[in-house]
Each structure stands twice: as C-alpha cells, then as structure tokens.
C-alpha cells in the first residue's frame, strides 16, 4: 500500500466517528501524492504524515453556565492545537450545536494548510463548543463565554495559541471572552483576534474573509482574461463571510441575487440590498426571511435549493458540506463556471470531483477564505507593535496576500502538471512549507 493510502486508513482507524476529519485528511493527502512520490522514503522515515494528521494537543472541557431562568446548563468545549510547525496555533472558535471533536479537528487540520499559504508565522488550531448563541440573551452569551474562558485561558496566550471567531462567534463573543481572559490573567495582550476596535482590534478584520474571497476570485478571473464585473453571483449563508463577500462582489460590479441561512434562502433578481441584510443580521440578529418584508422584489423559499438559481459564480459561505453533487450539477447546467469556497469545506468531496471533471473553476477554502486569518495575523502584528493601522493599509496588505496565495497555488499546480487545479496547488504549496519546517525542527 502506498504511504498516502496507509495514512488515509490510519486517520480513519484511529479517529472513529469523525467523518469530517476523515474527509479533510483524504482530500489533502490524495492531492499530495505527486510530492510524496518524489521522496517517499524520506517522508516515511521522518513520519511526516503520521505527525501531520495527529494533533499536538486536544483539550476538551465542561462548560457550565446559568440561563435566564436560573437553570444550570452544561456544554462541551474544545481546543485542538493541531500544529505549531510554522507559528503559534491560530484559528477560530465555533459555537454551534453541531460542534464535536471531529468537526473541530477537520477545521484545525485545514487551518494548518491555510495559515501556511498566508506566508505569515501562524500554526493551525481550532476550537469551539456545542453551544447555540441563537435565541440567547446577551447575558446568557456572556455567562457562557466567561465559563468557556475559565478553562480555555490555561491553554492560550499571545505567543502560544491565539483564537478568533468562526460560526456563532463574532465581535460580541470575542469581547466577552477577552474581558474574562484579562480578568483571569491580568494581562492585556493580543491573545484573541477579531477584538473590538477600541481594545486592540484591527480595522478590516470583520470584512476580511469575505473581501479576501472576492480578491482572490477576481485575481483568478483576471488570470483568465475575465472579471467579476457584470457577473451574476450566488452567495450562501448570511453571516460574517457571506455579508462581506456580497459587499465586495457588488463593489467589483457583480450582481449578487441570493443569500441564505439554515432555514431557507432569499432570491432578489434586482440584486441583494446588503444594507438591509446587515441590519437584519448584524443589528437585529434576525432571520434572512425578514428581508422580503422590506424588499418586495425578493422571494423567500424555505429549506434548501439556493444552488438551483442560475448564476455565473457560486460563493458558498455558510458551512461544511452544504453544496452536494446534485447542487453542483444544477449549477453547471444553469451556466455557472466558477465555485469559490468562502466557508470551510462547503463543497462535498463528490461535488468537488464533479466540478473538477467538468472543468469549472474551483477555489478551495483553505486558499480562498484565508483572508480572515490573514487579517487576524495582521491584528497580532499591530498588537505587538502597540499600533493601529489604517483601513487602507490593512486592506491593501490583505489584497496583496490574497494575490500572492493565488500565485502560489496556481504555480504549484502548474509545476506538478495540474494547471488550474487549485485543490492540488493549495495542498502542495502549503505542505512543502509545513514539511520543511517540521524537518528543520527535528522529531517533535
Ligand atoms: N469568520 C471568519 O473569519 C471565517 C469563517 N470561515 C468559515 O466561513 C463559514 C461561515 O462562517 P461565518 O460567516 O463566520 O459564520 P456566521 O455565524 O457569521 O454565519 C454563518 C451563516 O451560515 C448560515 N448557516 C449555517 N448552517 C447553514 C446551513 N446548513 N445552510 C445554510 N446556511 C447555514 C447561518 O445561518 C449564518 O447565516 C464557516 O464555514 C466558517 O468556518 C472561514 C474563514 C474565516
Ligand atoms: O482569524 C482566525 O484566527 C481564524 C479564522 C478561521 O477560523 C478560519 O480561517 O477558518
């Protein structure tokens, strides 16, 4: 059996009941075959892949808190410190009822490669809890965040592990987490990113994942003599990534006609009014169906189906495995020519295979949604300098890094004879840096 196949089996055997982690490992290792084949004996001797798929540390803990009725609730928290090969662990926290160890491990594993592509000194980690902030009062969210930090603070630090937001964790949650960290440790340091702008946060962090997605999509199109201008775009989700992807795509002249949430989707043939979506989602914490109350041209449909709407470009920005094989076929039939992932692993493996075979452009999340963690790393830089950068400086650095990521992934794909295969390109470009750092640091 080849080394890669052995390692895929090992990941499955040693991590039962973690299908998302298996999926992420398989996707990465499969595409590393051309590199591993070049020097299989050396990679085997150094157990590079065994070490890469085994997190350095997994912490799981009890999170008790009191709800508004006086009832004690108990959730489970996690932090997976996957790899510090190229810097302190870095990656978000997800608060969602679906969170379990396998999901946090898949996200932490992806994060190692994504962070390597940024060319900034950050390793890979991820965390979260099976807590649902939806429908909770601010006091309940604060109580949960404080209890979560009562354990997490022992494991993190500005130079060891720097969490940030993800699904269900935005500015409000990061603020509560930061306040509790400061209270417990007495330290005022860049231990979390995505902080508020009055206490060490960076301009552009809020916008950065969505903006970065559009910057790299535009760069890919530019390299094929195209542009987003005039294109019809579908964005799924209506959270942080979706909102700012929509805003930037519109800025580039695209027409975004649909957005969704976990209940359903809105279709607005005149183009989504992002100011209204921001009001519903960021201020009122409401549901996307409220959009049609304010925009008569729009239609709301309950349930799945957003990918049946005709478009040129699809930007899945909600959650993992949200775009299936039948969705990919519907997109292709309706003329869609590019799928660029804003979320982490939103396209299933079968759908990805189909997309690659049908010669659509496909940008994998570890490259195309790297704008968020990039700006987080820029926030760490600003915190270390004890300075704030302007919006323009931060945004232009973000753009530069996204363009550089595109150059790396297209270059690596071409070098190995897989031109325009950005899945292979991203995995190989990232792996080479990680493996080199691991090799140089000895057996740790
Ligand atoms: N926030 C960030 O900076 C980054 C986020 N990501 C990824 O982007 C994705 C979205 O994250 P955020 O926008 O930060 O979260 P968020 O919590 O702000 O928004 C998530 C959105 O997805 C929707 N959603 C959840 N499950 C859904 C489903 N099954 N079908 C349709 N919609 C669904 C929610 O209703 C919500 O609108 C996640 O995969 C996350 O890991 C990736 C890189 C950075
Ligand atoms: O900003 C960060 O540190 C992490 C963002 C994140 O969780 C991700 O890239 O998936």
From TrEMBL:
SMART domains recorded: ELFV_dehydrog
UniProt key word Transcription: no
GO terms (BP aspect): glutamate biosynthetic process
MF terms (GO), sorted A to Z: glutamate dehydrogenase (NADP+) activity; nucleotide binding
Active site: 126
PROSITE patterns, per the entry: GLFV_DEHYDROGENASE
Domain Glutamate/phenylalanine/leucine/valine/L-tryptophan dehydrogenase C-terminal intervals: 202-442
Superkingdom of origin organism: Bacteria
GO cellular component: cytosol
Residue stretches spanning the membrane: none
Gene3D superfamilies: Glutamate Dehydrogenase, chain A, domain 3, Leucine Dehydrogenase, chain A, domain 1, NAD(P)-binding Rossmann-like Domain
Binding site for substrate: 90, 111, 114, 165, 376
Keywords: NAD, Nucleotide-binding, Oxidoreductase
Sequence positions that bind NAD(+): 209, 240
SUPFAM superfamilies named in the record: Aminoacid dehydrogenase-like, N-terminal domain, NAD(P)-binding Rossmann-fold domains
Family according to the record: Belongs to the Glu/Leu/Phe/Val dehydrogenases family.
Subunit structure: Homohexamer.
Protein known as: Glutamate dehydrogenase
UniProt organism field: Qiania dongpingensis
Chain's gene name: gdhA
């Amino acid at each position: 059996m080849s080394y890669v196949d052995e390692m895929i089996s090992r990941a499955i055997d040693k991590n039962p009941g973690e299908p998302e982690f298996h999926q992420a490992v398989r996707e990465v290792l499969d595409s590393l075959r051309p590199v591993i084949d070049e020097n299989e004996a050396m990679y085997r001797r150094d157990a590079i892949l065994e070490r890469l798929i085994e997190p350095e540390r997994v912490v799981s803990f009890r999170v008790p808190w009191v709800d508004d009725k006086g009832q004690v609730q108990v959730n489970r928290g996690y932090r997976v410190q996957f790899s510090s090969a190229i810097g302190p662990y870095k990656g978000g926290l997800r608060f969602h009822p679906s969170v379990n160890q396998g999901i946090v491990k898949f996200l932490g594993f992806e994060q190692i490669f994504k962070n390597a592509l940024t060319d900034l000194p950050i390793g890979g980690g991820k965390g979260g809890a099976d807590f649902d902030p939806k429908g909770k009062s601010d006091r309940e969210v604060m109580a949960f965040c404080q209890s979560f930090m009562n354990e997490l603070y022992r494991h993190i630090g500005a130079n060891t592990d720097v969490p940030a937001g993800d699904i269900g964790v935005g500015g409000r949650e990061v603020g509560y987490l930061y306040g509790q960290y400061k209270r417990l440790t007495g330290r005022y340091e860049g231990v979390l990113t995505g902080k508020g702008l009055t206490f060490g946060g960076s301009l552009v962090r809020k916008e950065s994942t969505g903006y970065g997605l559009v910057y790299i999509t535009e760069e890919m199109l530019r390299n094929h003599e195209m542009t987003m201008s005039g294109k019809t775009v579908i964005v799924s989700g209506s959270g942080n990534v979706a909102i700012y992807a929509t805003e930037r795509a519109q800025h580039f002249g695209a027409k975004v006609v649909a957005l969704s949430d976990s209940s359903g989707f809105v279709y607005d043939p005149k183009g989504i009014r992002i100011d209204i979506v921001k009001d519903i989602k960021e201020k009122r914490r409401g549901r996307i169906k409220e959009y049609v109350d304010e925009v008569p041209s729009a239609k709301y449909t309950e349930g799945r189906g957003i990918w049946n709407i005709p478009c040129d470009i699809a930007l899945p920005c909600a959650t993992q495995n949200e775009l299936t094989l039948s969705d990919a076929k519907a997109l292709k039939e309706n003329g869609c020519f590019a799928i660029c992932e804003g979320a982490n692993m939103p396209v299933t493996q079968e759908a990805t295979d189909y997309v690659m075979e049908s010669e659509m452009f496909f940008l994998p999340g570890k490259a195309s949604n790297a704008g968020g963690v990039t700006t987080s790393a820029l926030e760490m830089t600003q915190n270390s300098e004890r300075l704030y950068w302007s919006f323009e400086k931060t945004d232009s650095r973000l753009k530069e890094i996204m363009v550089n990521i595109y150059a790396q992934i297209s270059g690596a794909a071409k070098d190995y004879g897989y031109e325009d295969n950005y899945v292979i390109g991203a995995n190989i470009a990232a792996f080479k840096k990680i493996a080199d750092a691991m090799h140089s640091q000895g057996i740790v």
